[in-house]
Amino acid sequence: NAGVTQTPKFRILKIGQSMTLQCTQDMNHNYMYWYRQDPGMGLKLIYYSVGAGITDKGEVPNGYNVSRSTTEDFPLRLELAAPSQTSVYFCASSDRGGSGTDTQYFGPGTRLTVL
Amino acid sequence: DAKTTQPPSMDCAEGRAANLPCNHSTISGNEYVYWYRQIHSQGPQYIIHGLKNNETNEMASLIITEDRKSSTLILPHATLRDTAVYYCIVRLDAGNNRKLIWGLGTSLAVNP
User: Which of B103, B79, B90, B11 is nearest to B49 (CA)?
Assistant: First the structure.
């Protein structure tokens, strides 16, 4: 299994541009998440999904959109890039097991700079 | 979800045990304690989790106090590759609520 893959690894955007960060998992996990991590900080949840067709907002959803048409893919869309969105973006997935088992598996991240 | 408090940094000698503390004094009865770590610039990696009982796996041990207000992650024989930021997280396991609230973690430096 490749686990969770993210593309691209790096991207520089100009203010006002848009882009989609791709995330794919091959573990057949129902739950998927998008986080952002600013320098020296912990992760903040942007959006999450509990299954295909179902998404919900996290702590910091403004400026982002998501969709979940398949179990495997959970793309994150930035419509009008702003410098405040400069960050490292991590995608994760998990499956619901018994006894609180809910290990999240993370992708390698996408480093985004908005100038 | 309950919040956690961790020391910002710790040092440990290679080969010695690393004991990383975490306070979660407002934890609720059905909230689990999770530990993840993040090696520089990589995605976080799951280590261990527990509810009430102490837990051990191939990576670490988790000691949870009887009142559940604090816990300690133990890396029994730290190596240089264990240098990372360690995050202690409490998470409510209820229905579809899957939100992990991440703090700043503890930056562990394992020294030769």
Answer: B90
Q: Which residues of A touch B28 (CB under 8 A)?
A: none
| A-chain residues near B43 (CB < 8 A) | 4, 90, 92, 106-109
Structural tokens at position B97: 């609520």
- How many Cβ atoms from other residues are within 10 Å of residue A63's Cβ? 14
- How many CA atoms lie less than 13 Å away from A62 in the CB half-sphere? 2
Tens of each residue's pLDDT in chain B, 112 residues: 558 999 999 999 999 999 999 999 988 887 889 999 999 889 999 999 998 989 999 999 999 999 999 999 999 999 999 999 999 998 766 555 566 778 889 999 999 9
Q: Provide CB contacts within 8 A for A73, sequence distance 6+.
A: A22, A23, A24
Partner-chain contact B103 A108, CB within 8 Å: no
Residue A8 in tokens: 């691209």
Kindly list the residues of chain B whose beta carbon comes within 8 Å of any beta carbon in chain A. Answer: 32, 36, 41-46, 49, 51, 87, 91, 93, 96, 98-105
